TrEMBL record:
This is Patatin-like phospholipase family protein. The lineage of its organism: Bacteria, Pseudomonadati, Bacteroidota, Cytophagia, Cytophagales. Signal peptide: none annotated. The keyword Hydrolase applies. InterPro entries: Acyl_Trfase/lysoPLipase, NTE, PNPLA_dom. The active site is at S42 (nucleophile), D154 (proton acceptor). Keywords: Hydrolase, Lipid degradation, Lipid metabolism. Pfam families: Patatin (PF01734). A motif (GXGXXG) lies at residues 13-18. A motif (DGA/G) lies at residues 154-156. Residues 9-167 form the PNPLA domain. The keyword Iron-sulfur does not apply. A motif (GXSXG) lies at residues 40-44.
Length: 265
């Protein structure tokens, strides 16, 4: 039985820092809050797709730890990116074999940026995997992803906290941002330059949407982790979990909301 109170959760991008979303979701589940709708950009799209397909936060963490994502990437002979991510589709099919938004247990919306029109596009039906790949396509790092003749890059370029698909559908919206920016950062190579530039642009459009959220969770301490720092997966997960537990302790309304949802089920 589903709750009458509809909760929407918007998950930001942030590369490996997006693993913190799993800790956030686990802490929310512990007080009885599970989303009715999820929207995500980039790392948030990956976490959202696995979570909405039925995997629990701990299960997804284990998948990330056991998977060598970098072996699925190959050099791009192109001026638009230094890596191709087409072979990532094989990896996603292992965990999302039905490859369909409609087959998810929780409705999901994925944000990507359409290059030629310069607009955010929200995917919520049909094929699932290529929209996820488009949403995670860091500009300059990866070749754009083509879907139905159009080219897409990371959704966070224009919307790194996609709350808009949740508006009008939910009683409460919880926004989660894991895209922290270090205040003092040395640029040592092209990878760190791209990483720094992308994070700066994405942070701006997150905070412009903060007021659209009833609750805004921003796990502490994530700035110390790099966008590609998958080796620190457990630490990042724990940072998200502990920060959310603290957030909950300061927000009695959120605790009561969890209790209300459990009473409705």
């Amino acid at each position: 039985m589903k709750s009458e109170t509809k909760i929407g959760i918007a998950l930001s991008g942030g590369g490996a820092r997006g693993i913190a979303h799993l800790g956030v979701l686990k802490a929310l589940e512990e007080i009885g809050i599970k989303p009715s709708f999820v929207s995500g950009t980039s790392a948030g799209a990956i976490v959202g797709s696995l979570y909405c397909s039925g995997f629990g936060p701990d299960e997804i963490l284990n998948i990330i730890i056991k998977t060598n994502y970098f072996k699925f990437l190959r050099p791009a002979i192109s001026w638009t990116g230094i890596l191709k991510m087409d072979t990532m589709e094989q990896l996603y099919r292992v965990h999302l074999p039905e490859n369909s938004f409609e087959r998810l247990q929780i409705p999901l919306t994925v944000a990507a940026t359409e290059l030629r029109r310069g607009k955010v596009v929200y995917f919520s039906e049909g094929e699932l995997i290529r929209p996820i790949m488009a949403s995670t396509c860091i500009p300059g790092m990866f070749d754009p992803i083509q879907i139905d003749g159009r080219f897409y890059i990371d959704g966070g370029v224009l919307n790194n906290l996609p709350v808009e698909p949740l508006e009008g559908r939910c009683d409460y919206i919880i926004g989660v941002n894991c895209n922290h920016l270090q205040e003092d950062h040395n640029i040592s190579n092209i990878k760190s330059l791209i990483e720094r530039t992308v994070i700066m642009s994405m942070n701006y459009n997150v905070y412009s949407r903060k007021n659209k959220c009833d609750f805004f969770i921003e796990p502490e301490g994530l700035a110390q982790y790099g966008v590609f720092d998958l080796r620190k997966a457990k630490d990042i997960f724990f940072a998200g979990y502990e920060s959310t537990k603290r957030f909950i302790s300061y927000n009695e309304v959120l605790v009561k909301l969890g209790q209300q949802i459990q009473e409705e089920i």
